[in-house]
Design brief:
Elements: H1 3-16, H2 18-57, E1 61-66, H3 71-80, E2 84-88, E3 93-97, H4 100-108, H5 112-115, E4 123-128, H6 131-170, H7 173-181, H8 186-234, H9 250-269, H10 276-285
Antiparallel strand pairs: 1-3, 1-4, 2-3
Length: 286
């Protein structure tokens, strides 16, 4: 049995149990759609805030650094992250970075072990503008908010998919017998039903994307005037930036991966349903 044939048979199962399959698509898609909408809206807000912050300092990030009098270490780190020293006093070094991601890497002190210094004694402070503060705030929000929710949704979605697949298998004993009579191996039958779960995940992904776009549009329309007023007040010298709450980042792809990741988890939960003994008992019951 070729993959194309297995896909055709799996879609046939989707069509045969259309109501339950669509209900599962809606459930999984809605769950992940709300999370994806939150990510898209927050990323759009971050893009807007960073545009204001960049305009305030011409796109540059200014940091003051100190490490207990060890200027050589500070100079090496500034050079490592692409910064330029603009002020060199007796203790504190002032540097500018033309990229907020490089400035963030420098300020996070993630190379303490590599370069052999104590991060607790290394002081970094943004001295002009708020670009790094904005970037750091949203990075922390994404790290603390998205991944834990993804894990919870993976578990819930896997259980929903497993319940759907278990119900489908319980109604498909005669179909199993037909496949086996046509020469399909157990592995090929497993492939058919795994592809069935992937099809559900595919449609759930499209639904989640649609929900995210719609909710982002609603949020933009609802908060347009409020955000425009608040940012104009906070950054009075910066021109108007449209408050479009629609942004993409790598976490959007991660959410899509979590959607499809629920398929193998659900499949493993239902693997015992495909045993020859259980199939025989179901055939006998029918």
């Amino acid at each position: 049995m070729r993959l194309k044939e297995a896909w055709r048979l799996s879609h046939r199962e989707f069509a045969a149990f259309r109501t339950r399959s669509i209900a599962t698509v809606v459930t999984v898609g809605a769950l992940f759609g709300l999370l994806l909408a939150a990510i898209v809206i927050v990323q759009g807000l971050e893009n807007m805030a960073l545009r204001y912050a960049r305009a305030e300092t011409g796109g540059e990030v200014y940091l003051a650094s100190e490490y207990d009098g060890d200027k050589d270490l500070v100079l090496r780190r500034i050079d490592k992250y692409g910064g330029v020293v603009i002020e060199n006093s007796s203790e504190v070094l002032m540097a500018k970075f033309d990229n907020v991601r490089r400035a963030y890497g420098y300020a996070e002190l993630g190379d303490a072990r590599e370069m052999g210094y104590d991060a607790r004694r290394y002081r970094v402070e943004e001295v002009r503008g708020t670009q790094l503060a904005v970037y750091r705030h949203f990075r922390g929000m994404n790290r603390d908010f998205v991944r834990p929710i993804c894990v919870v949704l993976l578990v819930v979605s896997a259980l929903v998919l497993a319940f759907t697949l278990a119900h489908l298998v319980s109604q498909s004993a005669r179909t199993f017998a037909l496949y086996r009579s046509l020469g399909a191996s157990r592995g090929q039958i497993l492939l058919i039903y795994f592809l069935y779960l992937l099809e559900i995940c595919f449609w759930a992904m499209l639904l989640a994307m649609g929900i995210a776009i719609i909710l982002a549009g609603v949020a933009t329309a609802t908060l347009w005037n409020y955000l425009s007023e608040q940012f104009s007040r906070h950054y009075p010298g910066v021109g108007f930036v449209p408050p479009i709450l629609l942004g993409l980042n790598w976490m959007c792809a991660e959410v899509v991966a979590w959607i499809f990741g629920s398929a193998p988890v659900a499949f493993l939960l239902c693997l015992d349903q495909f045993s020859e003994k259980k199939m025989a008992l179901k055939m006998k019951g029918d």
